[in-house]
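Narrative progress, year one. The postdoctoral researcher (J.K.) led the effort to move from monomer predictions toward full complexes, under supervision of the PI. The following entry was the first complex the group processed end to end, covering 603 residues in total.
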Amino acid sequence: VSRGYRVLEHTADTGIEAWGPTPEAALEQAAVGLFAQLCEPGSVQERRSVTFSAHGPDDDTRAVHFLQEALAHWHLDRMVFVRFEVEPLSGEEVRARGFGEVYDPARHEILGELKAVTYHHAFFGKSSDGERWVVRVVIDI
Amino acid sequence: MRTDGIVYADAEMMRTLLSKEAEALQQVVNVAHLPGIVGPSIAMPDIHWGYGFPIGGVAAFAEPEGVVSPGGIGFDINCGVRLLRTALAREEGEARGKELADALHRNLPSGVGSARKDLQLSTKELRRVLERGAAWAVQAGMGSAEDLAHIEEGGALTSADPEGVTPRALERGRNQLGTLGSGNHFCEVQYVDEVYDAESARAIGLDVGGITISIHTGSRGLGYQTCEDYLKTMLEASKRYGITLPDKQLCAAPLTSPEGKTYLGAMAAAANFAFCNRQVLTHFVRAAFEEIFHDSAEALGISVVYDVCHNIAKFENHLIDGEMRRVCVHRKGATRAFPAGHPLVPEAYRDIGQPVLVPGDMGRYSFVLIGSSAALTETFGSSCHGAGRVMSRHAAKKASAGRRIPRELAERGIHLRADSMRTVVEEIPEAYKDVSQVVDVVEKAGIGRKVARLRPFVVVKG
């Protein structure tokens, strides 16, 4: 598969590894993977979209901040996202749009708390074979 | 490494650490690289892998070169445990176990993003909570001065600066005061099933067969966001102050820097939110007991034994190489354990030492320990904080497949109420280390002494 994500299990926490043919696609997949840990993606409809942006001095940090900003929409506005579009990257900024809807307890099952996206072992860059872009983060759950 | 790493463990734990948790040991090493560390980088026997600092980590830093690191406190600032005792006997409690479980589950909002509809705070009022901690709740009629006298720091860190808490953090915490949250947070009703130290148990008010209540939660979204906000600040600050980091999550700033000071003020404010949270929860626990036993909380003898922080940084005076020095002790998944006679031990326990509350898993037991003078000299007056996971959440889910966990617990006389079945399967007893092993290491090492063991018969989870 040219794009996707998988969950990395650890004793006390969860990690996400996402990949795609472009850096933007890898970030999109990481955010989709993050929200899939919060809420069953199949139950979420694209009723609304929200734009947000993040900054970071280096790629790894930028990816963490992008995911933190995406998750903030859950923590503050109870948004659950199912799809993301990241604008072509330039400089230190990531600009993105998340698609989803406001959490509805009648239709959405919350799978677990996502306290925060950590910097621990965070990685955003090309895979070792250079063939795809990868994002790896650890989430405090 | 600027100093040694010391891990408290028995031979079996050490084997497991080396084979399966080598990264947690590496984290003990990483902490030893931070500037201004004084004494060793320490890990308690419930050590496990964290981010940056290990869970179960204790480290002290001294000015001028010493640092404060938000990752050394953790996302859940002042996550902690409060123990209440009652005048009720085991038989009386167990006879009403089911109703108690229902009443507590109703009274204590739990689960992901749990909120209290009956306690919506304006920003002004929320700031007061951050300044006053548990005293805010007492002033609002939820508790007594007697409660405050039995909380670490009297239930408020006076160094709190609400100005350092960002609007985003305030927003996340606004409706979460008086809620348990999810994951490993809980409220349990227990009975004392064994006493190891009769004199201390008597001083604490614990008798075999007496009923106790434990509350384990922290600063909720307000604390998580405060940590996140200041990690960002500290990443930049680390660069500015030339601090090399083996792991970004260890980012730090000098204690004397504006960034370090602002974080410490915000951290203390978040800690006060947690103290207040446990005080408000105590009020609603009392209300549940009043409803079930048709008597006042006073008549039922529901009083605070103690309330400990296990994710916190504090300035304390410690004797280092024969010299009394003011150091900033980071405890991440570790509990303060000061001995008898220490001025920071509340008056009621000055003769025996500080109670240390160590929760286990929801099926077995929890422990009450007492601080010791060896802890003061060896671990900056610190002890363990819990059992520590041995199974990932995924592995726990697998181990629970096809089982009915609530029924299994019911067969053992434990009434479980939870917001989500997912939490239940992730929190099965065998997902945790047997906390008695952890406590035994603490006792053998002399950094704490066993006083009593508590067994749950009502468990409320997120």
